[in-house]
Amino acid sequence: MKMGIVGLGNMGSAMAQGLLDNNIETFLYDINKDKRDEFKGFERANIVESEVDVVKNADAVILTVKPYAYDELLDKIKESVENQIIISVTSSYDLKKLEEKLPGKKLLMAMPNTPAKILNSMTGICPGKNISDEELRELRKIFSSFGETEIVEEKNIKIYEAVCGCMPAYVYMYIEAAADAAVSYGMKRDVAYRVISQAVAGSANMVRVSGLHPGELKDQVTTPGGTTIKGLKSLEKDGFRAAIINAVDSIMNK
Asked: Where's the Pyrroline-5-carboxylate reductase catalytic N-terminal domain (predicted)?
């Protein structure tokens, strides 16, 4: 399946990098020529001159423009959409809105995150009613080329975006804050970033590999009267859990 991407910002370029690193032929367009030119060195990258050119050449087209630009973009390409699969990557433009613009066409939502750039995305996939099982399998395989995938029900796509699509930013903020604290006590910043990011990655992998409840894993680290329980007590006092829940609430209730 030939892929297309319209919009080469942070998410679009991350997905393009992942697809091209896996030798998937991809047609690319961005209104900014410099962003297009960044992909000229990739063997399977086809740099085209318009959004319509992407649609005409690709079997599936990922729309990675800003949510406010979707209406204008879909108006530009709708006459060229025939049997192509059109993919939204924002819950702000869901299957219902896509169907209003492209009635009867093949539509799909995909919620990746920026670690796609290093082949570590977590992508939620929500197919529209006209996507066949075979097409869904092939698209899932393609999205799995730059990370992992999960089929998500349409009713859950927004919460998926809130906890997975946005998650890298939450984690980066945590790492930055922890590093600031380490630097304040004399650790070199590059060392702080390296050791803290590995601690985060290892802890996340521990949840997956062990299959244990995160609370149980937390208890394994927390010895009576030790340093960890003091840190946890401080986090509870400062509303760490509530802050995370409130962040998700702010997205769900916007």
From this structure: 2-90
Are residue 24 and residue 127 in the same domain, yes or no? Answer: yes
Indicate if 50 and 114 belong to the same structural domain.
yes
Number of domains in the chain: 2
CATH of the domain at 171: 1.10.3730.10
Range of 174's domain? 163-253
pLDDT digits (tens, 9 = 90+) for 185-200: 999 999 999 999 999 9
Residues 11, 100, single domain; the answer is yes
Q: Mean of the pLDDT values across residues 203-207?
A: 96
CA separation for the pair 205, 220 (Å, rounded):
15
